[in-house]
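Narrative summary of target 7.
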Amino acid sequence: MQFIDLHCDTITTAFDRGVSMEKNDLHIDFKRLTSFNAPVQFFAVWLNDECLKKPFESTIKYIEFFRSELNKTKYPIQFARSYTDIIYNRNRRVSSALLAIEGGEAIEGDLDNIHRLREQGARIFTLTWNRKNTLGAGALSGCEEGLTDLGKAAVKELNKADMFIDVSHLNEVGFYDVCSLTEKPIIASHSNSYEVCPFPRNLKDDQIKEIAKLGGVIGFNLCADFIRADGKPDHEDVIRQIEHILNIGGENVLGLGCDYDGITNTPKDLEDVGCSVFFFNLIEKYLGEDIAQKIFYANLDMFLQDNL
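Modeled conformation, tokenized:
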């Protein structure tokens, strides 16, 4: 089985806990990931409060750890920067690991650092985490302001650097600022439907439509609190979320962005990457094989082929 996933926090979680990315008791490790057929996994670098003292330096530290873990593993997984790399790896049955940056704090207010991170191989850039930063405000920050002047300039710079602008975590005003400024498709790498579950991190219907209109994609998040309001979703709640996003944005808008190792509470039977076959079969049971293939692989593969 093939799959593409836009977001996990395994780099930061593994480093901070002092465990290997090759084999561990987290949601993702290289051993479990590479048991599938050359999957594509985006790994995000996220910064905790302590790292914000030296955010760019901390980001590079996590990237170096990530590259070191990939270089020494015995499992068939390699770093990828482009769709060409993904195809090369896939043809050899090697998994692809791509890099994402979660939170604009990483650039320390210097737009040149966007290009430095691009040189490191980063292809996704999430403008904010839940907090406010120099670029804009997160959905849980309590701030209603949109992007700052630096944030607006960052949108243009990210377009130039050919990095995907990720609007997950961004507040609604900032979201529409991005839409008015970007010249390229945007992504919400790990977000669900607000209409189905009114959590501030989720996307309202008009936002889903806007992402689809711009040719972007959404990664489905397995955080239980984003699926059902009481944080106790069953399998039908998962399908209800998926079906709503497809109904609003169309069949080509949705992929995976499970947020493994960035969440603590998942639906039953979907606790880690090893549950991917069950997840595929669950979608197939309710929505059919074609939709399951689109969500797990085809939609994001087409998007990456056209834009990465």
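The chain has twelve helices and nine strands.
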